[in-house]
Amino acid sequence: MYLMSQTDKEVLADVMTKLKAMFPTITTPDRIIITRWASEENVRGTYSFKKVGRDSFSDDGEQLRMPVKNVWFAGEATAGESWYGTVNGAYASGERAANGILEVLSATWYKSLNWWPFSNTV
């Protein structure tokens, strides 16, 4: 929580002190973006977790990752049993959703040409 109370300039100074100790020739970036996840009013730094005694957690994630019409969902909670609650899970689920969207857009494009070799499967 220490970083949450610092200004962007203070965070940058702390990070650069540590980086310069490891990489003496590193230069300071000309711009930065710092998120303060714990103070974000809609999430307050939360992430998904498996509640003790609840066996359907993987089913919940499976339901969350199902697209609803043209809306696709991503995030660590949709990443599956082994990656929930992690940045890797969030990243992988974003790739999964993006690939799904690309598949649908590609299918739509092919159908617009009145040429679709796979009957009406999409």
Give a summary of the structure in a few sentences.
The protein is 40% helix and 0% strand. The protein is an all-alpha fold and 122 residues long.
The biggest beta sheet is recorded as: none
User: Number of DSSP strands?
Assistant: 0
SSE succession: HHH
Residue share in β-strands: under 5%
Round the mean pLDDT to the nearest integer and report it.
80
Spatial shape: extended
Structure description:
40% of the residues lie in helices and 0% in strands. It has helices at 8-22, 57-64, 87-112. The chain is extended.
Keywords:
single chain; 122 residues
Topology (SSEs and partners):
Blueprint: H1 8-22, H2 57-64, H3 87-112
